[in-house]
Amino acid sequence: MEKKAERYIREHSTPEDEVLAALFRQTHLYVVNPNMASGHLQGKLLEMISHMIQPSYVLEIGTYTGYSAICLARGLKPGGELHTIESNDELHEMSSRYIALAGVADRVTQHTGRAQDIIPTLDCIFDLVFIDGDKREYCEYYDLVLDRVRKGGIIIADNVLWGGKIDTEEAVKDPQGNGIVMFNEKIRSDDRVEKLILPLRDGLMIIRRK
Predict the structure, then answer these.
(1) Which of 102, 47, 55 lies closest to 83 in space, CA to CA?
(2) pLDDT digits (tens, 9 = 90+) for 175-205
(3) Are 139 and 179 contacting, i.e. CB atoms less than 8 angstroms apart?
(4) 20-67 pLDDT, tens per residue?
(5) Which of 62, 118, 137, 139 is the 20 to 30 A CA-CA neighbour of 12?
(6) Cα separations (Å) of 170 from 164, 167, 186, 188?
(7) Domain extents for the chain?
(8) Helices (H) and strands (E) in the chain, counts
(9) Is the C-alpha dihedral spanning 177, 178, 183, 184 positive or negative?
């Protein structure tokens, strides 16, 4: 997104709250690859979508430092639950601390490990799923979750434009980029779902199960 357009959008959107701003700053100060955090605009979109759906059950693949988990949890209906999975156990302390500071800890269950191992153990039908884990495994995540999403439910996948290089040879040569290329093609040819790519940040694929 052009910097001028992004600045205008920020100025005309609800400001980032203190907890999320602090989490975003701490992520940039102390965590490797801080650009993986959702950030204000993407986080606010996830929060808006969650409020629109008012889900009972949300699944997130890729907690990282907890920014998107907080945003998604804020839209849960009363008594709703968010299950979030992170493979890197070193991030648990930071994510759990800020999830608590945001006041959503009672709605969030954090899992540490491989999503492929954890998802089959979850006895839920999800209203909303956010995929933001290892890009090489996106197709695996999708195959695992689709039958666990209710009809009319939503799956959102992050990074589907891969820095604007998604249609280049460079993306195919990069294992992570190639994972995104294969995922996008898989979704394009899947007539069980409707899909739309939004060019926000690094690209979000909105997928609705028919």
Answers:
(1) 55
(2) 999 999 999 999 999 999 999 999 999 999 9
(3) yes
(4) 999 999 999 999 999 999 999 999 999 999 999 999 999 999 999 999
(5) 62
(6) 11, 8, 19, 21
(7) 3-209
(8) 9, 7
(9) positive
Residue 160: what residue type? Answer: V
In terms of Cβ atoms closer than 10 Å to its own Cβ (0-12, 13-18, 19+), residue 4 is exposed
Cβ atoms 185, 200 nearer than 8 A: no
Is 95 within 8 Å of 64 (Cβ atoms)?
A: yes
203: tokens are 């690209």
For the chain, the average pLDDT equals 97
CA nearest neighbour of 119 among 94, 95, 148, 98: 148
Measure the CA–CA gap between 83 and 143, rounded to whole angstroms.
18
3-209: which CATH architecture?
3-Layer(aba) Sandwich (3.40)
Residues counted in the chain = 210
Give me the DSSP letters along 21-56: HHHHHHHHHHSSSGGGS-HHHHHHHHHHHHHHH--S
